[in-house]
Design brief:
Helices cover about 40% and strands about 20% of the residues. The protein is α/β, with parallel strands linked by helices and about 130 residues long. The protein is globular, with a radius of gyration of 13 Å. The C terminus is likely disordered.
Length: about 130
């Protein structure tokens, strides 16, 4: 089972995304902030990270993306945001984001972005 970490300070959105991804067969770990994700410590069993860009607590999704790119370059990261700002998109791409989703997005768009980001061996959707 593929493990997806979802990081978003919007708790209702976090719960909705968790339920959607679980219904698609993913193992989901949720975190209300990038800081909480980092506190959980490193994990080798994460197949993809989905993170919001703007979060309170002093650590943004772009900060998280930079750390993951450095420490776990093989772990794909999909970025989501409520801001369609071209500067955010450019920064996320420069830091290695696999995809950039503007909120609100459809369930199909999210599942497709995550499935596309993961290598086929870890992607359960590719096996179906």
């Amino acid at each position: 089972m593929s493990t997806i970490c979802v990081i978003d300070d919007d708790v209702p959105a976090l719960i909705a995304i968790e339920m959607l991804l679980q219904s698609q067969g993913f193992d989901v770990r949720t975190f209300p902030s990038a800081r909480d994700f980092f506190k959980a410590g490193p994990s080798d069993d994460i197949d993809c990270i989905l993170t919001d860009i703007e979060m309170p607590g002093g650590v943004t999704g772009l900060d998280l993306l930079a750390v993951v790119a450095k420490d776990s370059p093989d772990c794909p990261v999909v970025v989501m945001t409520g801001r369609g700002d071209g500067a955010y998109r450019s920064a996320a791409r420069a830091l290695g984001a696999c995809d950039y989703l503007e909120k609100p997005f459809s369930a199909k768009t999210l599942v497709n972005a995550i499935s596309k980001a993961m290598p086929p061996a870890s992607n359960i959707m590719a096996a179906e």
